[in-house]
Amino acid sequence: MHSHNQGQAAFHGMLLFGEETAYFSHLPMFTHPSHVFQAIFEVTLSKEGTDPMAAYVEDRRTHPQAKMYGFAPVIDEEDEDALTDAFILTDLVTPANPHDPQSLPIRSSFKGHIYRGHFETFHEHEKAESEKPKPIPGLENVVAHVTNTVVFRKFNVHQTLPQLEYLLFGKARELFLSHVITRPPPGMRDFDQVLGVQVEDHQFTEDELRQGLLVTFPGRENSEDNKIQEQEQVTGQIQVHARRPDGPHSLAVQLKVGTQFYFETDDLELPSNHAGH
To answer: 117 and 196 share a domain?
Structure first.
């Protein structure tokens, strides 16, 4: 078992969203060293004898009121299945061969159950009537395979954002905004939010969207009260690193916001007595 300074191997719950392409957004917590990362991955889902992606998309379509879907890794250290071993989140982005940065990551696949709503009992997100959340029948033991890392960043203790910032990512017909999370001062909290969005007046290439584009909202303070709302129409500034003679430039884009797939603040609160690391 290897360990390094990025925390211990742990259970890493994920938000699952997207219908054309599946994405995971790691559910972070400021109070646990293993979870102080904002990470969004493009994934494929597989399970022998069935198509879990189609089944999950169908479940979304037949439950239009459900916004949040969760992917809870199955952790079983006793079995022979390497896909159910706990892992360190950075393993998903750390090359297996330290001398070859292009080599495959230490870990790219893991097994888990898909839930409609949150998989943790104490979270209120769209719970079923029963006390203990249960996976969607047929969507247990699904293998998730990471095919692209949209963003992977450790929270910076010293970073504060003067204005709202989101990441824009996705594929042509299905785009998303994810709030850029920063570590708040003790006693304060930040927020995790994922929204569906359409860009009204510009076509971005898949290449530009693969690693996410930073969208800022000048004059709009970075706070929960000022967050982007469902169905809002808003103008954002996007930094485009186009291969152009005049270098990177900023582009004003019209955004039409759709569904909010996730919004959470409680996990992103720092207790007043938490000095940090």
So the answer is: no
Domain co-membership, 110 together with 169: no
User: DSSP code of 6?
Assistant: T
Residue 276, in any domain of the structure: no
Mean model confidence pLDDT for the chain: 88
Residues 23 and 97 reside in one and the same domain: yes
Token duo for residue 86: 């706990």
Q: Which residues contact 113 (CB under 8 A, 6 or more apart)?
A: 71, 72, 74, 119, 135, 139, 140, 141, 142
> Which structure tokens are listed for 32?
């646990």
Boundary residue ending a domain (154, 178, 211): 154
pLDDT, residue 277, reads 47
> Structurally, how many domains does the chain consist of?
2
SS (H, E, C) 84-139: HCCECHHHHCCECCCCCCCCCECCCEEEEEEEEECCCCCCCCCCCCCCCCCCCCCC
Angle at the Cα of 11 from the Cα atoms of 271 and 129, rounded to 5 degrees: 80
The confidence score (pLDDT) of residue 88 equals: 92
φ and ψ at residue 224, rounded to 5 degrees: -55, -40
Gyration radius of the chain over CA positions: 19
Q: Using 50, 70 and 90 to split pLDDT, how confident is the model at 10?
A: confident
Give the predicted TM-score (pTM) of the model: 0.91
Cα distances from 107 to residues 86, 111, 120, 258, 271, in angstroms, run 11, 12, 24, 33, 33
User: 62-77, pLDDT tens digit by residue?
Assistant: 999 999 999 999 999 8
